[in-house]
Structures are given as C-alpha cells and as structure tokens.
Amino acid sequence: MRIAVFGAGGVGGYFGGRLAQAGQDVTFIARGAHLQAMLDGGLRVNSLKGDFVVQPVQATANPAEVGPVDAVIIAVKAWQIEQITDALRPLVGPDTFIVPLQNGVETPRQLASVFGAARVVGGFCRIVSFIVGPGHIRQAGGDPTVVFGELDNQPSERTQRLLGAFQQAQGVIAEIPNDIQAAMWSKFLLISAWSGMGAITRAPVGVWRSLPETRQMWQQAMREVLAVARAHNIALPDNLVDKSTNYVDSLPPHATASMQRDVLAGRPSELDTLCGGVVRLGREAGVATPTQAHIYHSLLPQEMKARGRIEFPQMP
Questions:
Q1: How far apart are CA 100 and CA 72, in angstroms?
Q2: Which helix (H) or strand (E) holds 145?
Q3: Residue 311: inside a domain, yes or no?
Q4: Contact, 59 vs 35, CB < 8 A?
C-alpha cells in the first residue's frame, strides 16, 4: 500500500516506521529538525519490541510532493486536526481513506465534515512512545496496538488491506473490532477520566486512586462518560467502568497520563478533546456531566495560558 503518515512523533514514527520496516511504501509528513535528521540519517526507533532503523526514509514537509495515496494515517494531537486539514488535501484522492489515531471520539466527524464521510474511518492506538531527539523515537511501554474500522462497522476491502499491512509489521498488534464506535468510546471513558484526575490533582495515579475522595471523583467521571455514550446510542458494556477501574488499579503507582504531563509542563494539551469533549457531547445529548465539567473548567485557565490566549503570572 502507498501510505502517508501525517506526523512522525511517538505515534506516527513508531507505527509508520514499522510499516516501512515491513516493506510498505510509507511517506512521513514531518517538519523541522526531526524531518532533516530523518532525511540525513534515517529514522531510529528504540523499542521494547526490538530496535530498528528505517533508512533511507521517504519524508517531506510538503504533502503536495507526495500526491494522493491509498491511506493517510493521522498521528498528530487531536487539537491539531483543524490546523492540518488544508495540508491533508493533496494526499486525498478519489480512493484515499483517512485513518485518525487521536484520543477522543470527535475527530472522525471533524474530518468527515471536510473530506466527506466516505473517506474517513474510525481509529485509535495504544502505545507509550515519544521523540527522544531529532530522528529518534523511543517506545517505552504497552503493547503497540492500532484499532480501526469503517464507521458503519461494515467489512471493507480497504480496511482489510491496511490490516494486512499492519499484520506483516513486527511489533504491532492490529485489529478491526466488531464495533469501532464502542471501541473508541471505551478508550475515551478510560483516558478522559484518568487524564483529568491526574491533571487536576497534580499527582500520579497511585495517589488519587488510593484516596477515597479522589477515587470516588474518578469513578463518577467514568460513569458520566458511560451515560453520555449511551445517550449517543453507543453500545458500551455494563461492566466497562469496572474493567477500566481494574486496568488503572493495575498501573504502576508512579504512572501519569500524557495530558497530565502536558498540563503540568505548561504545554498545550488534549484537555478540550478529552474532558471538554465529554462536556460538549453531554450537552448535545442533554446529559449532565458535573464532574467532568468541574475538571475541565478548573484546568481551562492553564490551558488558555499554554495556548497564548490569556496571560497571567506564574503563581509561587
């Protein structure tokens, strides 16, 4: 397959690198020093699943140099989607389909409003990975997994082709679930509550899951997502909150979520995608989300400061 990977950070660099390692025709859309390092010396990936180097690398900052491809894998943060839609256009031909791997559940609808619903599938990933330095990615945890499927859950030749490409790649688990919407919302429930609790308490998971007060708050945040999902006719299982609880309880006590790390570092984060998304989708469906709203609104000043929308001095 001819595949464009838009964004060559921890997610795009790892999964795109594995596809290229397996012999797929992969072009990375990247920029700056990271792009130049890949062009000069290849893409180096250190991984718990085996280190590798892709060299030479097909990469560019200009999608127009690539032209239409079979599939576009979008591996930027969810809040960057609006910024890249124009840049995506040269990659999208009549038979191209777009595979977003963002957190949250709104990206497919956002992309469909620009490119048409027929060109967009649902998707997400599970991986702990990041850029170590220009041209260098490290996968540091989890079983790297990509999940995608047609939004109507019907089998398709195009998703089967992409599944086959991933199945040929070392160090990747790939699957097409029976219900991609339910799969996306299941992750949304887990990650929005975990991220929000970590960010608002400014504490690692071992702290807030152990205190009765914050544990109750976390449980309520997950139950709110479940209620919103069902109001949107998403078929989530009755035991999903319990399963998500068991997963978070199994994490090392020092674990933190990526949104939490961004908030604490003063960087733009996925706050609006995760906690804000719950509030927004709850409002659409007429479902109250007081806990998620409290988290979202409490963190909003810090998020607006990180994005340069407001200014205030750092508090001691």
A1: 8
A2: strand 136-149
A3: no
A4: yes
* Residue 24 pLDDT > 90: yes
Helix then strand count (H, E) for the chain reads 12, 10
Kindly state whether residues 170 and 262 are assigned to the same domain: no
Is the domain of 166 the same as that of 196? no
pTM greater than 0.90 (yes/no): yes
Closest-CA residue to 17 (of 153, 179, 30, 106): 30
pLDDT higher than 80, residue 297: yes
How long, in residues, is the chain? 316
Q: Find the domain containing 23 and state its range.
A: 2-178
3-state class percentages of the chain: helix first, strand second, coil last, to nearest 5: 50, 20, 35
Q: How far apart are CA 271 and CA 128, in angstroms?
A: 19
Beta strands at 52-54 and 43-47: parallel, antiparallel or unpaired: antiparallel
Pick from 155, 178, 201: which residue ends a domain? 178
pLDDT of 235-251, one tens digit each? Answer: 999 999 999 999 999 99
Same domain, 190 and 171: no
Tell me how far apart the alpha carbons of residues 316 and 314 are, in angstroms, rounded to a whole number.
6
Q: pLDDT per residue over 257-284, tens digit each?
A: 989 999 999 999 999 999 999 999 999 9
- Give the separation between CA 105 and CA 236, rounded to whole angstroms: 14
Residue 314 lies in a domain: no
Radius of gyration of the chain (CA): 19
Name residue, tokens 């490409």: 165
Could you tell me if 130 and 275 lie in one domain? Answer: no
Is the pLDDT at 314 greater than 90? The verdict is: no
Same domain, 53 and 167: yes
Same domain, 209 and 257: yes
Cβ atoms of residues 140 and 24 within 8 Å: no
Is residue 7 a part of any domain in this protein? yes
